[in-house]
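Q: How would the structure tokens look for this protein?
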Amino acid sequence: MGLVGLLPESGVTRDGTYDLILSSEPAVLVAGLITGELDAAALPLNVAAALYASTGGVRVIASTNLGALFAVTGNESVRDLYDLSGLTMYSPGLGTTPQLVVDTLSASGWFGSGGSSTTMADDSAADVEPEVIFVAEAAEVVARLAADPNLVGVLPEPFATSALASGLGLRQVGDLGVAWSEVTGADLVVGVLVVADGLSPELTAELRADTANSVAWVNANPGAAGVLIAGLGILPDAQLASAAVPRARLVALTGVDLYLSGNATLEAMFAAFPALVGGAIPGASFFWTPEIELIDD
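A: Here is the predicted structure in token form.
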């Protein structure tokens, strides 16, 4: 979503600068990087790390989005994350980033007495962590909410915005991405832009600058960006796409911010699910940060 500013219709870049290929399968993009068909690709951070572990042939030049993960429900008794204590919550992402977030917050007591809800002093509910049932995909969470809106679901964007606009009476009762930052002290980097090693430093720098400009343009122009997002088929209509933009946590971290937050996310992933990042935390050279000097350990 944050990269639609690279389309010439946005006016951010000149016509013909980029040939964009859209795929819902990261494996397709990974293959394109390996064969040399692609110069760059937007990937989940863990996929980029696993690719680096196996080939070493890519570098992360910017983030594309931070963790946008929301708790939604139609249950009127639930006001915030603290009220999830003792309830059942459905989440996608078994063994991936959503489970990492939920498990980290649960271990910190965020869904019980360790949270920061302003209503805690008045609550008498027992501090019982919610039972979390992980399902295969976000679409399955949406289907369960449609069958029973009183359930609690964890949804990433753009599924959360779509569910809230579905007419089921659902409300957002918590932002797990923000809670993660408060618990860990670092941003949760989810999506990144990687370049193949063969791309020149000059073109890499140009792409990084254009990426930052694209994300800034999308965030500043959700209406126009929504038209482009819908036009690519990322979301079914422009109105929904425009509504999802300010909630999607689109941000182009680079330099020190990219390294610190990206590395903190990788360390958390490795501690929980080593295979998710290719069995090792990438060295500092995984991040393309020419403005700071890093020693690859």
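Confidence is low (pLDDT under 50) at residues 113-126.

The radius of gyration is 20 Å.

Upvote if useful.
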